[in-house]
Amino acid sequence: MSDHLMSGTSTAATGADLALAAGPAPAASTAGVTAGVHVGKAAADAALDRGWLLGHFKDPEDPRHSKDVEIKWGVHPRGERRAQWVRGEDRTALLVLISGRFRMEFPGRDVVLAEQGDYVVWGRGVDHSWEAEEDAVVLTVRWPSVPGYKVEQDTSGE
């Protein structure tokens, strides 16, 4: 049994596709989620939640809910910068460059990720910010997943 995800299309798994030995899918399942399995497209799903695919902020009934880890699919146009520095970070993070060129800024040191697969890890207490030097896609993994880090977006249009 497999789900086929082809460019430009998304095949939502059906109960028959993902039948588990434990029995039928719960009645409350939704498209793309069956018996505790979620199938999706990172770019499409990320656009619904500021890039975040997994973490404490997802509904507790969603298999993407986790208090242990957060995962983000970040799509950033050239010149985009984080609105403000993260200060007093309580989590450890890994950021992997998927495509483009991306600069991580740390106190006293910048790290430029320029080739697919380049990555940087930083620990608790490390202040940071970032800028997309080219159109970039990055995958970020943070742990643990804790509330309180949302940066308010500027809605003034400036």
Describe this structure in words.
The radius of gyration is 18 Å and the shape is globular. A hairpin with a 2-residue loop joins strand 1 and strand 2 (37-38). It is mainly beta. The chain has 1 helix and 10 strands, in the order E-E-H-E-E-E-E-E-E-E-E. Residues 1-30 and 153-158 have low confidence and may be disordered.
What can be said about the biggest beta sheet?
5 strands, antiparallel
Mean pLDDT: 79
Q: Assign a percent range to the helix content.
A: under 10%
Q: Looking across the biggest beta sheet, what order are the strands in?
A: 3-4-10-5-8
Low-confidence stretches: 1-30, 153-158
Quaternary organization: single chain
- Report the C-alpha radius of gyration, rounded: 18 Å
Percentage beta strand: 25-35%
DSSP helical segment count: 1
Sequence of secondary-structure elements:
EEHEEEEEEEE
Q: Tell how many strands the DSSP assignment holds.
A: 10
Structural class: mainly beta
Overview features:
single chain; three-stranded antiparallel sheet; 1 helix; 3% helix
Summarize the structure.
Helix content is 3%, strand content 30%.
